[in-house]
Predict the structure of GTPase HflX.
Amino acid sequence: MQDTTIQTIPTIIAGLDRQQADFDYTMTELGELVTAAGMTVSSKVTQRADHIDAATYFGKGKVEEMAAQARGEDVPIIVVNDDLTPSQTRNLEKITKLSVMDRTELILRIFSSRARTREAKLQVAIAREEYALPRVHPSANPLDQQGGGRGASGGATANRGAGETQLELDKRVIRKRITHMRNELKEIMRAQDTRRDRRIHQALPSVALVGYTNAGKSTTMNGMLQQYGLTDKQVMVKNQLFATLDTSVRKLQLPNHRHFLLSDTVGFVSHLPHHLVESFKATLAEARDADLLIQVVDFADPHYREMMATTEETLNAIGVKDIPMLTVYNKADLRPDTHYPDREGMTLTLSATDPNSIRLLGQTLNELLYKDYVTTDLLVPFTKGDVVNYLRDNTEVKSEHYTDDGTAVTAVLGPIDRGRFAEYVQAAVAAAK
Ligand SMILES: Nc1nc2c(ncn2[C@@H]2O[C@H](COP(=O)(O)OP(=O)(O)OP(=O)(O)O)[C@@H](O)[C@H]2O)c(=O)[nH]1
Ligand SMILES: [Mg+2]
């Protein structure tokens, strides 16, 4: 199987309408996923049914109809709006004589073609191998098709079907590859964890951008970097699904010297394949450890409510809970008669490309992240120059002067720093008496 995107191959997208509330939305989304994979939608086929046919997913008549339609439109691939069992895929391919791709395989292909870093590539490759494992089939190898009593060419397994032996061998090879890749990924993650630990140690508040793919998370990150960034390291923005697959973390500085970390990460889509969610859990660790989440919503998309529900579900699946969330209704510029930027409690309506909007977001973060911050006096011994440096770099220092006992600093501190520097706070209290 090639990993590259298939260029402009026409497809038929097909779905079983079992009266799911989100059926139309997932069909629209499937069409967009097909485009994101570099293919085109030639036509759409749906079947109303109460149940799934165990052997062929769709009813037999519908399968014949689809095959005929595909022949008529010269379409080589049918993309199904659901996960198929390995045997359903095989049966459908046999009857239609076409390639059949399920939703998971489609998403895996898009992720494969987008992955850039070693980490993302490994995560996608693991998910693909996991997906492939139950689908390895003796008939996939033409040499095995004779099957039956013929021994393997070496003759060592004369009593078993050559097909079966080859199948076990293939599966063992895949499992080995998965283990190998998991180990490599663990190594990479360990290095990142160390980096993250160091950041947590610095006690900087962290904020994670989350949300449906293409909502404008990376654009928001770039807007914030432009106004508050310490570097101009922008992230990639593209009008396509899953432009971002890797997590980027940047240190930002709000007015008053207040630093925090902002992370941008992979976007979500409905029914994100289980294997992908599993393997991307590590990438999404930034969201799990965040002090605050910013859910970016494409307010200009008529399906934005479903997209928000999808985001909530995915966050639950990766184990994110009890983290306060700011909801950002983005792309307000594309909605007629929408007043922006605007804030109501934990909800903002804005446009990530508009500087005034970004300023409102910055002010909101300043308030939310620093509400427990208080002006605190500290007395730091001269031997602890690193503490004074830390306070200068990471907090708002109101005043600083030397005394006989050390440096007297008045700074605005959060609960973590107050705990960390408790002895210097007490020293200041004692000195004042
Ligand atoms: N008009 C308008 N377009 C926007 C706005 N914000 C983002 N976009 C566009 O929306 C598209 C997607 O933006 P991204 O920032 O890449 O979205 P994302 O959420 O990071 O998407 P993924 O990384 O694919 O999950 C790009 O074409 C942006 O230029 C906005 O406020 N107004
Ligand atoms: Mg992005």
Q: What stands out?
A: Residues 213-219, 237-239, 241-244, 267, 296, 330-331, 333-334, 351-353 surround guanosine-5'-triphosphate (ligand 1) (CB under 6 Å). The chain has 14 helices and 14 strands. The two ends are 76 Å apart (CA to CA). The CA atoms of residues 89 and 100 lie 6 Å apart.
